[in-house]
């Protein structure tokens, strides 16, 4: 089969690799019909390279049809399914508490990390990912989400990651009807988080330096701001001088305006992988511009919710400010299956309350992945969300 493979920093290629096969009776094999590029894939493309191996199949936002079903998978050939990016058993102590991203059955204990993820480095199990023609789905008996036949792929595809990630981010921020919410970063997760905030009745401020992303969010009732030195003051002025009740940081470790972190990332990237891996795990520093801005902006007693991925173990935090402002901080990989009952009716609603029809800016053949990654990272051609089609020819 053809698959998108990691080959080095800022280098992916589409290669012919062996087809996957069933390895357990709870597995399923799907033929992928749509697979998206996620903002967190760019961390593999750039910062987390020391944890990747050439030839790793990447991608963690797939959906498709079952072509082989293990005897205990509960699936049948032909079922249309979405596959969450987290791999969970659904039965362990953590799963019983709906902490699916901490599943004790699939935890990568050798790395000290949580549940295995599709296509996401040694840190999360080096599981072959979903930017491919076919995908083996471990624990498909629990993880695979059956969906209907009448709606196009894009209505369901984002249940794999960005919709539950955004929903969890907003829920963790603790906002609802009549509250105020700010979202740093209007990439795919930030777009969805902002729209979810509006759907839940909050007044939402979206912050991003890219005009096309601001324009997209504005179409969905979000009050948008460029990222500049006056932004936080302007939002405070709009919230009686206090700041918003909650802030979602949908940017993560590669934020703009973080020169120290950028230098650290660059220095680590110059090291051989064997030397860079332990340095990242013990002394890595993230680019914290968005997080520091979130802490500055949120009102006293408010909540900062992190949806953007962070990976540094030695990232400095303004503890005096956090303590003095009595700020709550919540974070973590999305517990995807915990939110599906809330989200499935919304993506199937003909009114499209979350604007899922207005998110994909580029749909390209799988073979165009190298160009798509470069475009997505550089934010050229108005790129907000890319979906790859394994069946479409270049």
Automatic annotation (TrEMBL):
Superkingdom as given in the UniProt entry: Bacteria
Which UniProt key words apply to this protein?
Metal-binding, Oxidoreductase, Zinc
Q: Provide the GO MF annotations for this entry.
A: oxidoreductase activity; zinc ion binding
Alcohol dehydrogenase-like C-terminal domain sequence ranges: 188-254
Boundaries of every Alcohol dehydrogenase-like N-terminal domain copy: 25-141
Q: In its keyword annotation, does this UniProt entry include Transcription? A: no
Q: Which cofactor does it need?
A: Zn(2+)
Cite the Gene3D superfamilies for this sequence.
Medium-chain alcohol dehydrogenases, catalytic domain, NAD(P)-binding Rossmann-like Domain
Q: What is this protein called?
A: Threonine dehydrogenase
Its source organism is: Corynebacterium pollutisoli
């Amino acid at each position: 089969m053809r698959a998108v493979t990691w080959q080095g920093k800022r280098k992916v290629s589409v290669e012919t690799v062996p087809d996957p096969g069933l390895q357990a009776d709870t597995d399923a094999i799907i033929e992928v019909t749509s697979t998206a590029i996620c903002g967190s894939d760019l961390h593999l493309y750039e910062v987390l390279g020391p944890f990747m191996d050439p030839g790793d199949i990447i991608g963690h936002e797939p959906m498709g049809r079952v072509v082989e079903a293990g005897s205990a998978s509960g699936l049948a050939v032909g079922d249309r399914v979405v596959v969450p990016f987290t791999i969970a058993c659904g039965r362990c102590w953590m799963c019983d508490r709906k902490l699916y991203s901490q599943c004790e059955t699939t935890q990568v204990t050798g790395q000290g990390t949580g549940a295995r993820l599709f296509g996401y480095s040694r840190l999360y199990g080096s599981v072959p990912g979903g930017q491919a023609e076919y995908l083996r789905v471990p624990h498909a008996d629990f993880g695979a989400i059956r969906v209907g036949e009448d709606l196009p792929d894009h209505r369901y595809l984002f249940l794999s990651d960005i919709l539950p990630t955004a929903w969890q981010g907003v829920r963790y921020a603790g906002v609802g009807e009549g509250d105020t919410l700010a979202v740093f970063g209007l990439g795919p997760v930030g777009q969805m988080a902002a729209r979810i905030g509006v759907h839940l009745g909050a007044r939402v401020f979206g912050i991003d330096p890219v005009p096309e992303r601001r324009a997209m969010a504005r179409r969905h009732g979000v009050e948008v701001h460029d990222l500049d030195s006056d932004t936080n003051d302007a939002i405070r002025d709009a919230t009686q001088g206090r700041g918003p009740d909650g802030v979602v940081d949908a940017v993560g470790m590669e934020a703009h305006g973080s020169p120290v972190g950028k230098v650290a990332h660059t220095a680590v990237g110059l090291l051989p992988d064997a030397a860079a891996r332990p340095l990242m795990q013990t002394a890595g520093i993230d680019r914290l511009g968005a997080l520091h801005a979130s802490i500055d902006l949120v009102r006293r007693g408010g909540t900062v919710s992190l949806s953007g991925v962070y990976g540094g173990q030695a990232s400095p935090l303004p503890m005096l400010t956090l303590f003095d402002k009595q700020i709550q901080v919540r974070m973590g990989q999305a517990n995807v299956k915990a939110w599906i009952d809330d989200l499935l009716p919304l993506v199937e609603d003909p009114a499209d309350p979350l604007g899922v029809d207005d998110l994909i800016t580029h749909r390209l053949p799988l073979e165009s992945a190298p160009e798509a990654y470069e475009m997505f990272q550089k934010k050229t051609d108005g790129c907000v969300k890319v979906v790859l089609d394994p069946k479409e020819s270049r």
